[in-house]
Write a structure and sequence with these properties.
Cytochrome p450; six-stranded mixed beta sheet; three-stranded antiparallel beta sheet; globular
Length: about 425
């Protein structure tokens, strides 16, 4: 693919230090030319004001099929390492009237009433996972990401869309590969085929045996109000709900638990009632956005951002990891975790027409999950220094490969076991 200007930065596919990378990009300007895997070039939009504008600008779209010339004209390989992010037909990638139509259909599943109705399920799943953790020996090191942060949101979303546990486990591996920016072209192509196959199987099952779930509702809604979903839109929309509802919340839990365990004085503020779980949620989303660099949007026309021109048709990434830490918004302490700060403004749920429909469910599962975890395990502590936690191999997500903790203090030698 031809370049219109020199590439300023090659994104680190290993995600070794997303915050330093985000700060460097932000210092270079509101929009910086970057290179993605496979030699594809895009623009990273880096500060709060510019991102907020991009998220609401009608000259910005998420539809590669309509507005990315390289994709339309076949210059993006079908086995491009990030092909799954653009080769979808759902409300995430739809444009104009199609986006409104699909968002309206999906929105019926996330009304405030239906959100609150899911609380008993969240409590059941949370307590079930924590019951299993109680079997750990005193002082034993357990991976809280694998045993709690990962399964809780994944199991919840699977329940909401009517997916079996066996299918969820298999599909989870596909989603993990999708967000891994170190995958090979062969792996990327397999990811695309596997998640589509899994969604087709789910739709076929629910068409034959519908239930009280989002997939069944979407199938039933295909002919309502002239808002017919194509088969591709149906499968891809369900996958978008599964991926967005699980992966981001997994990383949220990972980051929130890490932040509270490394700031015990702030955890005590919550326990004493001087701060709330809402404070924890918003401050975590601000300083440790679960999304780092989200692909992709496209310029419908030339876009001017503080003297930088993003040419028509160029792809855009939103640098969420840089937004909440923007000193122009939060001052010199923008990189500090502080649940007492008055202004916790962030854009981690998005903004504008693509604002996260599941934000209410995400806040509810975060509140129930965190409050119950720290109530059940008041001695919870990290088993390694925080700077030894290994980041996920991706520039798309912000989380750790593992979160080793001790649920209780080790039993002193000779004291026996509980």
């Amino acid at each position: 693919m031809s370049l219109q200007c020199p590439v300023a930065h090659t994104l680190d596919t290993t995600g070794r230090d997303i915050h330093s990378e985000a700060a460097d990009l932000r210092a270079r300007g509101p929009a910086v030319r970057v290179e993605l895997p496979g030699g594809v070039h895009a623009w990273s939009v880096n500060d709060y004001a510019s991102v907020r504008r991009i998220l609401t600008d009608p000259k910005v779209t998420k539809s590669a099929r309509n507005h990315w010339p390289d994709f339309i004209e076949g210059r993006v390989r079908p086995d491009w390492e990030m092909i799954s992010w653009v080769a979808m037909d759902n409300m995430v990638t739809a444009y104009g009237k199609d986006h409104v139509r699909l968002r309206r259909l999906v929105g019926k599943a996330f009304t405030p009433r239906r959100t609150q109705a899911v609380r008993p399920l969240i409590e059941q799943l949370t307590n079930g996972l924590l019951d299993a953790l109680e079997a750990a020996e005193p002082g034993e090191v357990v991976d809280l990401r694998e045993r709690f942060a990962y399964p809780l949101p994944a199991m919840l979303v699977a329940e909401l869309i009517g997916m079996s546990e066996e299918a969820r486990t298999a599909t989870a591996k596909v989603i993990d590969m999708m967000v891994d920016t170190t995958v090979t072209p062969e792996q990327a192509q397999a990811v695309l085929l596997n998640w589509r196959g899994a969604m087709e199987e789910l739709v076929a099952h629910k068409r034959a045996d519908p239930g009280e779930d989002i997939t069944s509702d979407l199938i039933a809604a295909r002919d309502e109000d002239g808002s017919r979903l194509s088969e591709a839109e149906l499968c891809d929309t369900i996958f978008a709900i599964l991926g967005a509802g699980s992966e981001t919340t997994i990383n949220f839990f990972d980051n929130a638990i890490t932040a509270l365990l490394t700031h015990p004085e702030q955890l005590e503020l919550v326990r004493s009632g001087r701060a709330s779980w809402d404070d924890v949620i918003d401050e975590t989303l601000r300083v440790e956005s679960p999304l780092a660099h989200l692909p992709l949007r496209y310029a419908v026309e030339d876009i001017e951002l503080d003297g930088v021109t993003i040419p028509r048709g160029d792809p855009i990434l939103v640098n969420y990891s840089g937004v909440g830490r923007d000193p122009k918004l939060h001052g010199e302490s923008a990189g500090d975790f502080d649940i007492t700060r008055a202004d916790k403004e962030h854009l981690s749920f998005g903004h504008g027409p693509h604002y996260c429909l599941g934000a209410g469910v995400a806040r509810l599962v975060a509140t129930v999950g965190l409050s119950t975890l720290f109530e059940r395990f008041p001695e919870l502590s990290l088993a390694v220094p925080a700077d030894e936690l290994q980041p996920l191999p991706t520039f798309i997500m912000n989380g750790h490969r593992a979160l080793p903790v001790r649920l209780t203090a080790p039993v002193p030698a000779g004291a026996g076991t509980r």
